[in-house]
Design a protein that fits this description.
Blueprint (H helix, E strand, L loop, with lengths): L1 H12 L7 E6 L5 H11 L3 E5 H9 L7 H12 L7 E5 L13 H8 L5 E6 L1 E3 L2 E4 L8 E4 L5 E3 L8
Helix pairs in contact: 3-4
C-alpha cells in the first residue's frame, strides 16, 4: 500500500512545524479509515477517534442554540494533548453542521499545536484548498490551506 509510506513520511515531516497536522484527503470509499487503522497498527501510540460519535454524544444534552458556543470546547476535550502520541481524526462530518458554526480548519490547526493530528478529510484537495461537498450543494465549503501537508487519495499528483 504506497499511501501508508506517504502518510508516515508526512507525519514525520510535521515534527518541526508549529501546527502538526496532516490532511488525509479522499472522497467516500477511497480508504481513509482503513489507512488510519493500518497506521494505528504500525504506531501503537496513535489513537483513532470518531468525531461524529464522540462530539454528538457530548452535544446531546445541550440545546441547539447553545451548541455553537460549546462545540469547539468539546472538540478540544476530545482531542486533548497527548505526550508522544497522535490523534487519527476520522468521521468529521458533524463539524460542518450549521449549528456549530466552527471554523473547522482553523480549529483543527490550533489543536494540532498541542498534539499531532492526522485528519481524514471527506472531500477533495484542489489548488491549495480543501473542498467539502459539491459546488451546487448547500453544504459546500472551500478552505484555503497555508503550508499544507496533504496526502491526497483522490489524486496522487496533488500530494505535498
Amino acid at each position: 500500500m504506497p499511501h501508508i509510506e506517504n502518510l508516515i513520511a508526512s507525519i514525520d515531516g510535521t515534527s518541526t512545524l508549529r501546527s502538526r497536522i496532516v490532511w488525509l484527503v479522499g472522497l467516500p470509499g477511497t480508504g481513509k479509515t482503513s489507512l488510519l487503522y493500518r497506521l494505528m497498527e504500525m504506531r501503537s501510540n496513535y489513537q483513532h477517534v470518531n468525531i461524529n460519535k464522540l462530539l454528538c454524544e457530548k452535544l446531546l444534552d445541550d440545546a441547539p442554540d447553545k451548541r455553537r458556543f460549546i462545540g469547539g470546547t468539546y472538540l478540544a476535550e476530545i482531542l486533548r494533548p497527548k505526550a508522544n502520541d497522535a490523534w487519527l481524526v476520522d468521521n468529521i462530518e458533524v463539524l460542518f453542521s450549521n449549528e456549530l458554526k466552527l471554523s473547522i480548519v482553523d480549529s483543527l490547526k490550533a489543536l494540532a499545536q498541542q498534539a499531532p493530528l492526522v485528519v481524514a478529510w471527506p472531500g477533495k484537495y484542489e489548488n491549495g484548498r480543501l473542498i467539502y461537498g459539491a459546488r451546487t450543494h448547500l453544504d459546500y465549503y472551500e478552505y484555503p490551506l497555508d503550508s499544507p501537508v496533504v496526502v491526497d487519495l483522490n489524486n496522487t499528483k496533488n500530494q505535498v
